[in-house]
UniProtKB/TrEMBL annotation:
InterPro entries: NT_sf (IPR043519), Polbeta (IPR041633). Residues 482-563 form the Polymerase beta nucleotidyltransferase domain. It comes from Clonostachys solani. It holds the Pfam family Polbeta. This is Polymerase beta nucleotidyltransferase domain-containing protein. SUPFAM superfamilies: Nucleotidyltransferase.
Length: 718
């Protein structure tokens, strides 16, 4: 690579972007026109802590700032909404690495196949910490006003105005308010966001302001006496991030002006970003509650947009956790430059926010799975209703078939067309054929009613009565072509039915039943409810369909009301084996979980990671627990999904176990230890309680109904 002739800072950035593709965004930015004037403020600290503050014009000479002064120990230059021209002049004057500016300018990364990643994504946390600077990326919660001002055509993606345009993402309305999330960054300072624009449409502008005025101030509150004497100045600085930072620096600094450290200089910026992160976690909490209520009524409130929003929130929380992990690593790396107590407290605050985001991330994962299942149920219900509507089209055909036949009889010559003299011939004959078709349909319908059970006046009260009432109905040709076996399960099979109990039926289709046979059979629920005079839930099952828990339960406990026992014999053994295996694994898993909880009870987090022998036994028990909670049997894939809440918390465990087995206990960093401690002391006891109180009793109820005993020798032989 030929080295270019020394020229401008822009040329240097272009040269570096060939070595570091993440600088391409900065390279493009330096070729843009300046949109707004940057604000430059210089803070000067003397040896005794005295400060002075003055502003500089964007095009002013910066050379005097690099000169030594006997009265100035430290200078801090605060730049708001830095322009391309100012980046070139500041970078050249102070010999700044272009990666510093690129980390501030490039924050949006959409697809790796179209553009290189941003510096924050392309750089490992250890390299970032060693460089000695870190841009604090976070979200600002913004208020766009009344939600009525926005329509469905208003785009989701908006942008701020200014030199560095930040992404602003519109959120679903809450309580009539339209909120948004704006990307923000420190240590270079973003301009206040007062207006947002639609991408490519500068005329479509929306006023915006920070929600509730902005972040919560973290400095000691002023006293009433100082306020009454007029000593305190106006504190309304939250709309301008630069104003807030300047106000914090005018307080006696937390660093030594003679020998300032990196983390002590960035102390106020860190506190500001963490305050914004805290407000962001409260917003996620509010949206979690919003979606919980949305999922309560899928017919009126759950939409496809809810699935998209949940996916977006899940992605945001993962990215947020990544940013906070990098921040925690940076603070821990440079913590020696700050008072130990202040550094530890800041790390505790970061971990507090990480813990909240991690909890909300898990909630969003669960809600997304539930919402996806509900949408699938709605689609399934819609398909069934469409199949039922096919029957109604038959009635329309009864009218139009005679019309088509009569039209062909008269060959539709001009004389017999509507509006001509002999059209009444066609109408007269059509009337007779239509009446004849409708009369024949009525006779066929009455014949079907005669061959089936008369509609009873009282709800069924027993399995034998269900069998009796449904017998004639299931002897119909369309049902016999497709259905091999029908069984009742649930409260009736347990003989615990009440006047309010519904009837649960499993309908098993024949092996040779075609898709057309099943499709035209339609949904039997409405007809069965009319015959049985109870609410009916019908579960359908194709021949050798993969079994989930409900179908296993129906096959094991179901009582035959129609069909051949041979079909049941082909499916019941597998269902019994899966249920037996699940119960035996869960019983052993509960015993092991209680053992782990009891062994951890007297220990602290520090003591756990200090005992290598105890930790080795713990890892062995966790490996056993993973195999007990989740079956690798291919036939158990469906039944595993029913109990996913019992093992979804174990997702981080395989990587933790592998880390220990390959690199040892000393390789565990702070985040690894905190994650494992949380899993063992919070998630594991909670799942053990759910297993004992909910899931094992459900399984036991199936076996009590069937009155089967677990025979391990038989299972091994099979």
């Amino acid at each position: 690579m030929a080295r270019p002739t020394p020229s401008s800072y822009k040329d240097f950035t272009s040269y570096r972007s060939k070595l570091n593709p993440s600088l391409s965004g900065l390279n493009q930015y330096l070729n843009r026109e300046t949109v707004a004037v940057s604000a430059v403020t210089v803070l000067e600290f003397g040896e005794h802590g005295a400060t002075s503050q003055h502003k500089m014009a964007e095009g002013a000479d910066l050379s005097h700032l690099t000169a030594a002064s006997s009265s100035v120990s430290t200078r801090i230059i605060l730049i708001e909404d830095i322009s391309p021209r100012l980046i070139s002049s500041v970078g050249a004057a102070f010999d700044i690495d272009p990666s510093f500016f690129a980390g501030y300018i490039s924050t949006y990364f959409e697809a790796i196949e179209t553009k290189p990643p941003t510096p924050s994504l392309a750089t490992l946390p250890s390299v970032t910490a060693e460089r000695g600077y870190l841009h604090l990326h976070y979200h600002r919660v913004m208020d766009l006003g009344s939600a009525e001002s926005f329509t469905t055509d208003t785009p989701y993606a908006l942008n701020s105005d200014g030199n560095v345009a930040r992404n602003v993402r519109r959120l679903p309305p809450l309580s009539g308010r339209q909120l948004a999330l704006a990307r923000a960054c420190l240590f270079l300072v973003d301009a206040p966001i007062n207006v947002v624009l639609e991408t490519g449409k500068l005329n479509n502008r929306y006023d915006v302001k920070p929600l509730h005025g902005g972040y919560e101030d973290f400095n000691p509150s002023p006293t009433f006496s100082s306020f009454s004497l007029g000593i305190e100045k106006d504190l309304d600085c939250n709309r301008s991030m630069a104003g807030g930072i300047l106000r914090h620096f005018m307080i006696p600094p937390v660093f030594s002006p003679v020998s300032p450290q990196i983390l002590s200089i960035s102390y106020y910026a860190l506190r500001v970003s963490l305050s914004e992160w805290l407000l962001y976690t409260l917003l996620i909490s509010r949206y979690c509650k919003h979606y919980e209520y949305s999922l309560n009524d899928i017919s009126t409130r759950l939409h496809d947009n809810d699935i998209i929003d949940l996916q977006r929130w899940r992605r945001r929380t993962k990215q947020s956790l990544q940013k906070l992990a990098i921040l925690a690593h940076f603070v821990e790396y440079w913590g020696q430059g700050l008072d130990k107590q202040a550094g530890d407290m800041m790390l505790n605050d970061i971990q507090y926010i990480q813990k909240q985001l991690d909890d909300y991330s898990r909630s969003l994962e669960q809600m997304l799975a539930v919402a996806t299942s509900m949408v699938q149920l709605l689609d399934s219900r819609r398909s069934i209703l469409e199949a039922v509507s096919v029957r109604r089209l038959t009635y329309i055909a009864l009218v139009f078939v005679p019309l088509s036949w009569v039209s062909s009889l008269f060959s539709m010559s001009d004389t017999y067309l509507p509006g001509h003299g002999r059209f009444w011939y066609q109408s007269r004959i059509l009337r007779n054929f239509s009446l004849s078709s409708l009369w024949n349909h009525r006779i066929a319908h009455q014949t079907r009613q005669i061959t089936t059970s008369p509609k009873p006046s009282d709800p069924v009260t027993s399995i034998s009565e269900i069998r009796q009432r449904c017998g004639l109905m299931f002897n119909r040709d369309d049902i016999q072509r497709a259905v091999a076996w029908v069984g009742v399960f649930g409260s009736f099979s347990r003989y615990k039915q009440t006047p309010l109990s519904d009837v649960d039926l499993l309908v098993g289709f024949k092996k040779e039943a075609s898709k057309d046979d099943i499709y035209f059979l339609g949904d039997l629920t409405g007809e069965l409810e009319g015959v049985l005079e109870r609410d009916v839930d019908v579960l359908y099952m194709q021949y050798q369909q993969p079994l989930d828990f409900i179908r296993c339960q129906a096959l094991v406990t179901g009582k035959t009301v129609y069909g051949s026992y041979e079909w049941l014999q082909n499916h019941q053994p597998l269902a019994e084996r899966l249920l037996f295996d699940t119960q035996s694994r869960f019983v052993e898993a509960l015993r092991l979980m209680k053992k782990i909880v009891e062994s951890l009870a007297p220990l602290s987090e520090k003591e756990l990671f200090s005992s290598s022998s105890f930790f080795a036994d713990l890892i062995g028990n966790l490996e056993k627990l993973l195999h007990l909670l989740y079956s690798e049997d291919q036939d158990a894939e469906g039944i595993n999904s029913h109990f996913d809440v019992l093992y979804e918390w174990t997702k981080p465990l395989p990587s933790i176990i592998q880390r220990y087995q390959t690199r040892g206990l000393r390789s565990f960093e702070r985040e690894n230890r905190e994650c494992l401690w949380h899993l063992l002391t919070t998630d594991l006891p909670d799942r053990a309680l759910s297993l004992q109180k909910i899931y094992l009793p459900i399984l036991q109820e199936v076996f009590d109904t069937k009155k089967l005993e677990l025979d391990y020798s038989t299972m091994e032989e099979s």
